[in-house]
């Protein structure tokens, strides 16, 4: 209840902040008149959180290494926050390369495997430091720069055919709420997050990455951890209004960066509306899977104190799982299933085709 009060209070500041920082829907994320013609990525570098992590987070810190995570792919827990593939995997498949090796496992992979790129994303992280003691966005880019400087895996010329996925922000806001900071600071904090994201994007481009895909923030008010309050029937629109502010400021930042580069170097992937499209269409085209109740997760704890994958001290599982993960959009309280991600990327296909790959 306290969190809801905070969000409703923040809405009173929403219009004021909008007037300061720009109209909510007035700025496009990229300039569609400029493209890198002939560009086809051969390497994917990933920075972000659990929506993009494919195995960086330590086993001791996450249920993503516990059953039933990974039951669809690769058939066992492997550090992905889903029953199977996540955003990174689908973007890699779209551009026609193998999903990049997680940074944590780079020393165990052959050089040939590393040529597809590298994934620096860690579940639980943010643009700034979050509740989990893991590398934030700046530190992830530090890792990347250190590898480039060493020159034994990638050279500057290798980045000519590179694309980056930069997927992060939700954990910053959940951490803000958990810290019980004044609600009046929320809109200003959103601007801080986006401003730092802009710094990070500018830095990646300066390092030589040619294309940078930036997902907008997903509708946080539609995550099962929130919609459980309505028995998974309704999204929390007050939370989604704040997400719209984040996304509006992100669009403006990306438009400014593209104006500076004179090309659509930076691409907004409209994750917010892609999620809502799948929810509203219940999987109808675009999207190919029918989700009867898209807000209801497949895997949940038996009570609020437990999460998907939790077991008690005797090893007895304290979660329940749906009969078919392919029938659910959400896997757990926060993350889509593989089927959910597939539907989202089906919606995003047109944007990816027109903006990311030019024959």
From TrEMBL:
Its signal peptide is: 1-22
Does the UniProt entry include the keyword Hydrolase? yes
- List the keywords (alphabetical): Hydrolase, Lipid degradation, Lipid metabolism, Signal
Q: Keyword Magnesium, does the record have it?
A: no
Pfam families registered for this protein in UniProt: Lipase_GDSL
Please give one Gene Ontology molecular function term for this protein. hydrolase activity, acting on ester bonds
Picking any one GO biological process from the record gives: lipid catabolic process
Kindly give the InterPro entries that the UniProt entry links to this protein.
GDSL (IPR001087), SGNH_hydro_sf (IPR036514), SGNH_plant_lipase-like (IPR035669)
- What PANTHER family does the entry give? GDSL ESTERASE_LIPASE (PTHR46020:SF32), OSJNBB0059K02.9 PROTEIN (PTHR46020)
- What family does this chain come from, according to its entry? Belongs to the 'GDSL' lipolytic enzyme family.
What is this protein called in UniProt?
Answer: SGNH hydrolase-type esterase domain-containing protein
């Amino acid at each position: 209840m306290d969190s809801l009060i905070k969000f409703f209070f923040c809405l009173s500041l929403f219009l004021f902040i909008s007037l300061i920082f720009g109209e909510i829907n007035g700025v496009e994320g990229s300039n569609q008149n400029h493209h890198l013609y002939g560009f086809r990525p051969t390497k994917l570098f990933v920075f972000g959180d659990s929506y993009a992590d494919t195995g960086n987070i330590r086993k001791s810190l996450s249920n993503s290494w516990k059953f039933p995570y990974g039951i669809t792919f690769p058939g066992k827990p492997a550090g992905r926050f889903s029953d199977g593939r996540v955003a990174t995997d689908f973007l890699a498949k779209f551009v026609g390369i193998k999903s990049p090796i997680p940074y944590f496992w780079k020393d165990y992979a052959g050089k040939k495997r590393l040529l597809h790129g590298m994934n620096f994303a860690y579940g639980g992280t943010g643009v700034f430091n979050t509740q989990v003691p893991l590398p934030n966005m700046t530190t992830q880019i530090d890792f990347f720069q250190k590898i480039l400087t060493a020159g034994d895996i990638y050279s500057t010329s290798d980045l000519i055919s590179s694309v980056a996925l930069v997927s992060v922000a939700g954990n910053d806001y959940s951490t803000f709420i958990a810290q019980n900071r004044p609600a009046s600071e929320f809109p200003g904090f959103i601007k801080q997050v986006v401003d730092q994201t802009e710094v990070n994007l500018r830095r990646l481009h300066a390092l030589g990455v040619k294309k940078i895909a930036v997902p907008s923030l997903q509708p946080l008010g539609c995550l099962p951890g929130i919609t459980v309050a309505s028995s998974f029937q309704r999204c929390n629109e007050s939370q989604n209004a704040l997400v719209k502010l984040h996304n509006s400021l992100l669009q403006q930042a990306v438009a400014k960066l593209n104006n500076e580069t004179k090309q659509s170097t930076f691409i907004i992937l409209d994750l917010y509306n892609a999620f809502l499209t799948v929810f509203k269409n219940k999987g109808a085209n675009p999207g190919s899977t029918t989700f009867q109740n898209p807000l209801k997760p497949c895997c949940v704890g038996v009570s609020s104190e437990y999460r998907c994958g939790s077991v008690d001290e005797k090893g007895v599982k304290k979660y329940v799982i749906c009969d078919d993960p392919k029938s659910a959009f959400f896997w757990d309280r926060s993350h889509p299933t593989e089927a959910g991600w597939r539907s989202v990327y089906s919606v995003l296909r047109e944007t990816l085709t027109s903006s990311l790959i030019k024959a």
